Amino acid sequence: MSTFAAQAISTRRLDLLPLRVEHAGEMAGVLSDPALHAFIGGAPDTPQDLRSRYQRMTAGSPDPAVSWLNWVISLRDEACLTGTVQATITHSGSHAEIAWVTGTPWQGRGIATEAARGLVGWLSRQPVRTVIAHIHPDHQASAAVATAAGLTPTDEWHEGEIRWHRSIR
């Protein structure tokens, strides 16, 4: 059974860098705004909590049939991290569930859209047939990102969120 591994992805303005535990310090600041949790719940992680979470994430999924791929978004011109993208891929290659978050200071600049498009483009070069995202029905910014990445909403719901879908094979 093959596994997937995050690889660096470059877009016009961004570098999507495979997540490392060492990113936790800078990312704690990027993700520190409680408003980022308005639709997903919870609160910002402390740097120590984020480091622990990144250790678990980089260790990989406990399910051998699933790969967790995580990237930090680096805005090349400003040499700073601005958010994350992720993909959870089944080893059958049947589908990838994706998500993204951009820190508040960088929102509204097309960063999430560019990162999501870059991720979906990368996934299209893998043996993935379907890309899925789950978006809160009131989160218009995430719906716009999903639309720009070629996903469309379905009639399916998952834990209070709308399931978005794109076939790439």
Question: What is the molecular shape?
Answer: globular
CATH superfamily grouping: Gcn5-related N-acetyltransferase (GNAT)
Work out the radius of gyration.
15 Å
Describe the main β-sheet briefly.
8 strands, mixed
Give the fraction of residues assigned to helices: 25-40%
Q: Would you tell me the overall average pLDDT?
A: 95
Quickly count the helices.
Answer: 4
CATH topology: Aminopeptidase
Structure notes:
There is one protein chain. The protein is α+β, with helices and mostly antiparallel strands and 169 residues long. The protein has a single domain (9-167), classed as Aminopeptidase (3-Layer(aba) Sandwich), CATH 3.40.630.30. It is built from 4 helices and 8 strands, in the order ββααβββαβαββ. An 8-stranded mixed sheet has the order 1-2-3-4-5-6-8-7, sandwiched between helices. The two termini are 20 Å apart.
